[in-house]
Amino acid sequence: MTFIIHRGANEIGGSCVEVCTEKTRIILDIGMPLMNKDGSTFNSSEIKDLSVDEMIKEKILPDIPALYKKPRDKETAIIISHSHQDHYGLIDFVDNDIPVYLGKASHKLIELTAVFGGRKPVIKNPIYFSSYEKFNFGDIEITSYFMDHACCDAYAFLLCGEGKTLFYSGDFRGHGRKWRSFYKFLHIAPKNVDYMLMEGTSISRSNKRFETEEQLEEQFIKTFKDTKGINLVYVSGQNIDRLVTIFRACRRCGKLFVIDFYIANVLFELAKLDYKVPYPSNNFQEVKVYNPSLLTKRIQNLNKNDLIDRFAQFNIDYEEINKQTENIVMTIRSSMAHEIKQIKKLKGSTLIYSMWEGYKDSSSTKKFLNDIVKRGTTITTIHTSGHADNYTLKKMYNAVLPKMLIPIHTVDADKYQELFNEVVVKQVIDGEIIGNENKDVSLLAALEEIGKAYEKSGILPKSENDKIMDTVQQYLNIVCEKLKKNDVQAVLFGNMINIFDGYEISLKSVADFIGCKPLKLINYIDDFKTLEDKNLIKINNYTEPEEWQNVMTFNISINILTALKDNKTPDNENEDKRIIRFPKK
Ligand SMILES: [Zn+2]
User: What separation in Å is there between the alpha carbon of 166 and the centre of ligand 1?
Assistant: First the structure.
């Protein structure tokens, strides 16, 4: 079983991992990116006119042909860890005959997002799994583990195939409303895992524990009590933990919880699936629903009036809101400027910002918040991360104790080794194949033999090995495996430039060839910033790192290797000056 992180090795958002055996392919998440390659915010509306081929070329969609059309080389399925767009958002582009495994509530939330966004729900072939269930697809066995995360139906997975095991954490934390699930996981965590892909969205050098939802509940209560006017809460409609926290604070303060009909639908659907959430009903009399004008118009245009009408008996109008502002906690978002205008008195009110700080950078949010401050509202923040703090990351690691830890869903992959100094942390890059370490290295044995003989006599022997590679790329892959195995420190650089001058090859291959981490290599590539495709580098313009300058090497000409490959006698007369150096052990 091998796997490839197509996106997420050094990025938050757009997660996608392909796991393959000889017969089976499983795609773990197929997320929408949050960032463009240049670091700017990814705008999904900009890709709506692109074809699948164009999106593959732009590296938005993963380059896995079987996802988009038949025939498929292997039985293929997708598994979605949870209902955040950065984990499923590109599924619209996938051939909808492919089975999609996901939690039932996740599917419902994905459908609601599509309906409210004016799009058709696209998962034609959903297969639901439940918590801690073992199921098979092809020759891969999958186990799901329910996780604590900001949304309500999130999972980690263990995949077993061809004698290897891979654990994928998905997104998780241990300080949310479902923290018990995380501690349950610690007790039942899989053992003897070969590879563990663990998210590190919030990994940092600080070991500060994150605040819990329970602590937030107390902070909401204090703010609600201290505020003389209306309490507005800026919150995501799918942060279910947070909505429950706010509702509980409302109930404890005797306030009405006023939500828009989108949030009402989210909670209503979850309640139908037996989730313990408050929703507009006689059981939750303090939950009231308002109908924001823009959203109402959009849903009416889609002829989906039932999504509005189903809460009619729990509606609250602006007259009523204005009558009892001090008694109301109301959820809002930046698209609701019109609704804010309907509230006559904002002096003395509080807006509680309850989302990630980074969203404040968007121009619409900025304007919305500025306008509201001008009318006398005080802004305060009550928020905690949807992701694990360092303490929780360590807990998960210690429960699984994998043979190898691989960072994912993070921009701080280099911090893993500091935090988990007792384990093999393998920093990878997008597109790198992992898990084929034990593949055939006979070529390398041959090369090593050549090297040894050359060292002794200065004459290159003829090799019987006919497997010498026919492409630069393959060659590098194989050589680097051998170098890793022999624990050789470094291979020379300048020589490689000679050999492959002008070639475009993958950054990963070069890094492996040299024996360093890709991210370190970037520092030595003068023109890295100007490269369009950061995964491919052009072999020129290098500065040779000092620590590699005195590596003892021996040389093999490229034309001699080529001749050996073709089982011909090398032409020493016309020796190609391009050489490869191998390090001396
Ligand atoms: Zn998430």
Answer: 20
Q: In what order do the strands lie in the sheet containing 75-79?
A: 126-128, 100-102, 75-79, 24-30, 16-20, 2-7, 433-434
For residue 117 the two structure tokens come to 């966004």
Vertex 311: Cα angle to 306 and 317 (nearest 5): 115
Distance, CA 386 to ligand 1 centroid (Å)?
7
What are the φ and ψ backbone dihedral angles of 470, each rounded to 5 degrees? -110, 0
- Name the token pair of 72: 């498929």
Q: What is the pLDDT along the chain (585 residues), one digit of tens a residue?
A: 999 999 999 899 999 999 999 999 999 999 999 988 777 788 888 888 899 999 998 889 999 999 999 999 999 999 999 999 999 999 999 999 999 999 999 999 999 999 998 888 889 889 999 999 999 999 999 999 999 999 889 999 999 999 999 999 999 999 999 999 999 999 999 998 999 999 999 998 778 999 999 999 999 999 999 999 999 999 999 999 999 999 999 999 999 999 999 999 999 999 999 999 999 999 999 999 999 999 999 999 999 999 999 999 999 999 999 999 999 999 999 999 999 999 999 999 999 999 998 888 888 899 999 999 999 999 999 999 999 999 999 999 999 999 999 999 999 998 998 898 878 888 888 888 888 765 444 444 444 544 454 444 443 333 333 333 333 334 444 444 544 443 232 333 333 433 444 444 555 655 555 455 555 555 545 445 555 655 555 544 444 444 444 333 333 444 444 444 444 555 555 544 333 443 332
Contact of 196 with 402, CB cutoff 8 Å: yes
HSE-CB at 285 with a 13 A cutoff on CA atoms is 1
Residue identified by tokens 């090297």 is 451
Cβ-count burial of 312 within 10 angstroms (0-12 exposed, 13-18 middle, 19+ buried)? exposed
CA of 256 to the centre of ligand 1 (A): 29
346 vs 376: CA distance, rounded Å: 6
How much distance in Å is there from the Cα of 134 to the middle of ligand 1? 23
Q: What are the backbone angles phi and psi of residue 580, rounded to the nearest 5°?
A: -110, 140
Q: What is the pTM of this model?
A: 0.76
Ligand 1 centroid–CA 80 distance in Å is 11
CA 151 to ligand 1 center in whole angstroms: 7
Residue 516 Cα, ligand 1 centroid: separation in angstroms? Answer: 32
**Tokens for 313?**
């008996």
| Distance from Cα 82 to the centre of ligand 1, integer Å | 7
Q: What is the dihedral of CA 150, 154, 156, 161, to 10 degrees?
A: -150
